[in-house]
Inverse folding.
């Protein structure tokens, strides 16, 4: 790592910390004004942003990026409008800062309150989607945090143009320009330097594919809000209604196959395999899903192919599902805890006891009873936009929205109390 | 690190994870039964524990440990009784597991609950006090976590004897023997191996001096609940009542000088320096405290010695205080945020506006208005025993009691809902 990058990143960190101290004290109205002004600036700058994006698209095409990546990178007027609207939706959320999370009075009269305060400085490391620039900046601003953004090199010009609009809105509202900063280089060494800025950055949110997240997990000296992958399960219990199971499983696997809450493995209770397995497998195959099954699954439908051991540990993010017959809910829990990624897992059953065993037993951020794993989403939870989903057990678990971007402090009010003894 | 230590630690990790899965499902009554049985076993084994402690004391004396360290190491019947009573007090706390932290229903009928669950496996790395063995194990057990304990080599025999009693109580209550494990070697390489067991340990709590904590912070790949030091401030505002200020400052500095919540720096508002500074300094000096002051402080009392720059950043843990005159509450906040350690800071004032500026502005886990910094303690907060105090912003901040040893999961209950779109 060059000394130059090191010093560049330290400077960003210093500025972010100073801005964070101001943002922590900013009234909700000022933050909302900044978010609305930023939305307006993005609409006004739409032409400039699309021109910058065209530069990135041309470079991406020349570099041979896949069509899927180019689609993620692409900005058009509709996507720019959606980005601006997203900022206005964040402005409309309640202010997460200053909430009294708990309060109580001690026998000696000390009044103790646990009050929500911003984390401080949030670092976001992401890949090609330039809209993350606006979404992440907006969530950080709303929660009173300064943000340091490091986007993918492919979206550098797009993100820079979006940043200019954001900062214009923020300063127009009287908040510090350094509230949102972008790492001004595509040098990969800057990521390494960022991951060691523990003095200046309170949490890092990596958003992107498994290799990006794995690198961040390996190198970071800063706490993370992250999930490496979503190996989500749906377990169809012996007491499951077949029609409900079919509807939920189809949605959980096929609604969108590329999101982290998509089901990757279907577990079927041996107690209902005779009646439920064949219709579930047939439905999946007929909807265009490849089924990789154990022996019982292949016996139920000869179109299923053989699942290898690796399949139980694989996040396909595609129209592929692993299917296995298990001996009841405890075996399902065991499978989930052994092969899952602690993200989101569901049971379909009419038996409350089986549901309880599953919901308690699975060590996952989100456990569902009779609903689709694709509900794993901050918006679907009613939390507003999310900056990501965390499978960590510290602090934020599950969807990470503006409340999760806060920590708290204890405010203690006395009348001169001293501690005896 | 030898392969043997690596494999030993991995084995401990596997056992702890398996025990944690069982503990997470254990009813509160079983955990309380285990805690009471462990307390009883400690009382019964008192003779054996004292004999083991004598071995450690002899080795410690031969090694030339200081009297202070030998005192920490020493166990007598009164300390053993206190240890047993501590476990019974933990048993009497409400069960932190299963609390519904929040619940709401979505427009589509999905019922979402955020429910407290154990973290999983907690690692505790501590120094010479053998009573930490029982305290930490008790807090982990109550919160449904498996514990891996690594005590100081000086207290190895004492801790092992306490462990035997603890495990006897735990198994008598039908809970797994691996609920509490001790690293069975004093090899320092075991600590390094432990800090990399991120697959098996969810959080590490280092308890001890600054050099121990600094090593853990540097090496750990696992989230920590820790504070490196407590550089706590008391700020006497221009609107402070002098009598209250004297009582609170004397307690904050001198009640116990060796605890992390002891005040290390006194800040006095220039607005009241003419009336308040000399009496405060005289009181401190006359109570046996060395005062290291800025020019204004030395002018107020010539017994004060000169403070160097380093004094503003020093945790004395002794009868020494740094004293400085500042220009009002904002300068006090600036000093605290620059030189403090984010632990605990207090303002003495009759002015609610100044108090608000201080409480909001200081980026510390605990901020107090008109009360002593020595209240920074889980017991004083009414949280029951604490495993430590955290200055981190993730998850637990301030005192870490049984509630903070829990994380949560989202339990979602539906009636077959699928996600549209």
């Amino acid at each position: 790592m060059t000394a130059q990058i090191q010093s560049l990143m330290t400077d960003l960190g210093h500025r972010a910390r100073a801005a964070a101290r101001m943002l922590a004290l900013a009234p909700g109205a000022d933050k909302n004004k900044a978010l609305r002004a930023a939305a307006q600036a993005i609409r006004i700058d739409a032409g400039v942003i699309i021109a910058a994006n065209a530069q990135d698209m041309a470079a991406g095409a020349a570099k041979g990026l896949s069509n899927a990546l180019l689609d993620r990178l692409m900005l058009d007027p509709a996507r720019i409008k959606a980005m601006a609207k997203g900022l206005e939706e964040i402005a409309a959320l309640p202010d997460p800062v200053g909430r009294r999370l708990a309060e109580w009075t001690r026998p000696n009269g000390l009044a103790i309150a646990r009050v929500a305060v911003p984390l401080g400085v949030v670092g976001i490391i992401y890949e090609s989607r330039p809209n993350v620039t606006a979404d992440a900046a907006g969530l950080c601003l709303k929660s009173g945090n300064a943000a340091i953004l490091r986007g993918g090199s492919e979206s550098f010009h797009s993100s820079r143009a979006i940043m200019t609009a954001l900062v214009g809105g923020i300063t127009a509202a009287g908040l510090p320009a350094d509230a949102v900063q972008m790492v001004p280089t595509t040098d990969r060494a800057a990521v390494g330097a960022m991951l060691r800025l523990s003095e200046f950055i309170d949490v890092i949110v990596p958003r992107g594919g498994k290799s990006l997240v794995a690198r961040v997990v390996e190198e970071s000296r800063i706490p993370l809000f992250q999930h490496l992958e979503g190996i989500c399960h749906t377990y169809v219990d012996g007491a499951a209604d077949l029609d409900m199971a079919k509807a939920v499983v189809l949605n959980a696997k096929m609604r969108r196959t590329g999101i982290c809450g998509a089901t990757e493995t279907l577990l079927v209770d041996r107690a209902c395999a005779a009646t439920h397995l064949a219709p579930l497998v047939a439905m999946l195959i007929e909807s265009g899903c490849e089924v990789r099954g154990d022996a019982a699954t292949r016996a139920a439908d000869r179109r299923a192919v053989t699942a290898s051991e690796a399949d139980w540990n694989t996040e396909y993010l595609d129209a592929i599902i692993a299917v296995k017959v298990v001996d009841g809910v405890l075996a399902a829990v065991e499978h989930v805890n052994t092969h899952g990624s602690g993200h989101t897992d569901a049971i379909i059953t009419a038996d409350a006891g089986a549901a309880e065993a599953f919901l308690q037993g699975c060590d996952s951020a989100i456990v569902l009873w009779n609903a689709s794993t694709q509900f794993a989403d901050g918006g679907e939870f009613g939390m507003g936009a999310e900056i990501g989903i965390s499978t960590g057990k510290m602090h934020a678990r599950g969807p990470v929205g503006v409340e999760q971007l806060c920590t708290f402090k204890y405010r203690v009010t006395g009348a001169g109390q001293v501690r005896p003894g």
About this structure: The first strand of chain B starts at residue 100 and ends at 105.
